[in-house]
Amino acid sequence: MPSQSPSCSTSNWISFLRQYGPIPRNDNMYDEVIQRTLRRKKLQAIAFETEYLGELLDNFRSASPKSVILTGTAGDGKTYYCRQIWEEFGGSVDDWQKDSKIQRLMLGDQQLVVIKDLSELTLEEKQSLLPQIATAILGKDTSKVYLIAANDGQLVEAWTEAAQIEELEPVRKTIEDLLVGDLRELDGFQVKLYNLSRQSAAVLFPRILKAILEHPGWGDCNQCAYQNQGCPIWQNKQRLEGTDADRTTRERLTDLLELCELNQMHLPVRQLLLLIANALLGHPDARDKLLNCRKVSEIIAAETTSLASLYRNIFGENLPERRRESTEVFKVLRGFGIGAETSNQIDNILIFGADDPELQPLYTDLVLSDPFYGADLKYQAQQRSYLEGDAAKGREEFLNVLQAQRQRLFFTILSDHTTDMKLWDLTIFQYAGEYLNGLFKVLQEGEKIPKSITSRLIRGLNRIFTGLLVNNQDELLLATSGSYSQARISRVYEESISVARKRGESVSVELDKSRKKPILVVNLASEVEPIRFNLTLTRYEYLSRVAEGALPSSFSQECYEDVLAFKTQVFRQLSVRQTLEREDDGEEAMNIRLLEVNSGGIASERTLEVYF
Questions:
Q1: Which helix (H) or strand (E) holds 523?
Q2: Are 135 and 128 a contacting pair, CB within 8 Å?
Q3: pLDDT digits (tens, 9 = 90+) for 330-379
Q4: DSSP E strand boundaries for 386-505
Q5: Which of the 8 DSSP states describes residue 392?
Q6: Following DSSP, what letter does each residue of 67-81 receive, concatenated?
Q7: Where would I find the H helices in 163-219?
Q8: Rounded distance, CA 184 to CA 171, Å?
Q9: Residue 602 and residue 471: Cα distance in Å, rounded?
Q10: Can you give the pLDDT at residue 3?
Q11: Which helix (H) or strand (E) holds 253?
Q12: Contact 213, 220 (CB under 8 A)
């Protein structure tokens, strides 16, 4: 008798999880759609600890609650917060699901008014409602308290339109000050503003991942015959879970998300859910490029399970290019260049490791040890074909496989080997590991960063400020072309700022108190306002590369212009200091100081005296 394929049970949980993925219908965009689906499929919601919910509930439970504005980008969870607060205080689920823009319920003697989305209100509705909100914010009406959800741009726009009414102007200015100053509240106003875009993806991602991986819906898989017979969905789940001894994949993905935040690229909750769903279910041959249970047996039979690799799916490799590039999280993560970037060491292992005695131990450990997504029979056949110089098509196929293997190694090389394997050479940010672990996390712990890092940053700044290949790293050199501070070559020496604290001068790397991100701070004098330069990942990489020999305009023209703008700010504050210190010496001579660079790359001043 012919052998029968094992049975595959269809899971409501897997079907539901697909809705969070990058599907064309965009069901994952709407909290209301998700809630209806959960009830229909009789599933538990994906529940995880959010950053502000407890604080918000405490506010509305207090004797004198303040109105709350929730702002942020689309997908940050504004609707989720509103619904949770509504239900916590006795609001009906059925009432919430009604097509109503505004919901009301009583909190003791006060009425809670929930505005689900300020942008959905008509102009007439805004003109009627905003003055009522303003009276509550100004403390003139204590009978009502408001909970308002609004994207930040729409929030400012709505109040700007309404501010034509004179009494609304103080409220408009307060909301603008809260947004611009990244503040929670201001004295004298009964309102709190929560910018959900300030939620850290690196903090939320592990919570969301845990909630998904531990969801009881996975129990459906225990009845599936494919669970231990090559199901890529189950394989991806196990790899994201990791073990007590090895959680490298999830930790490295969290590191990438933290680097995104530090590089001023915010990823909302919706994009994190999409990322996890795609990592688990992605496959280029499935409908909507996301697997369901019925498709599993087909891809196993077709021997294409390697295309379901979560290491590819993290970058949206299962999607058509157009959809991939239009999905925020994949666009951001692909910006690291993982898969396209490589090192000679990694490629030698992947290409020649099977035959090279010196590389064989590493090849066995890193490639052969993973027969599912590493060196399966197909990979080994393509490898041999490539080395034997077979048809161009075979060469192209192997190069695509090589990219997938680099992506896999980035997420699987153990932390103990990141240095000797030069892990971050697999990205365009070769200093990213140092930036995250040697700078940002050190500052988070309240400790000082290594002097070698500060010295390299100063060397990079000096080379850009002067346009010369200088090696000075104990002082910040300020030079111009004589009349123009942003000239590419600046040989006219103006001043130098001591890096070590000295007579009010210093240059240091600190953690910004409000946004908790690294900044470079230049102090010229105790009575002069310090100059701050946001030290993003891209800027850190740029300064480090310039310090190690790259041309200032080669890595990033934008960074080059940013550093020159920073130089202008330093000169502006230097002028303030000079004004405070200036004395008229009455001499009829002018000194011109030029920079000279010795054979060791150390720049020093040489003075020319001009009489007139």
A1: strand 518-523
A2: no
A3: 999 999 999 999 999 999 999 999 899 999 999 999 999 999 998 887 88
A4: 475-480, 492-498
A5: H
A6: EEEEE-STTSSHHHH
A7: 169-180, 201-213
A8: 14
A9: 5
A10: 45
A11: helix 248-262
A12: no
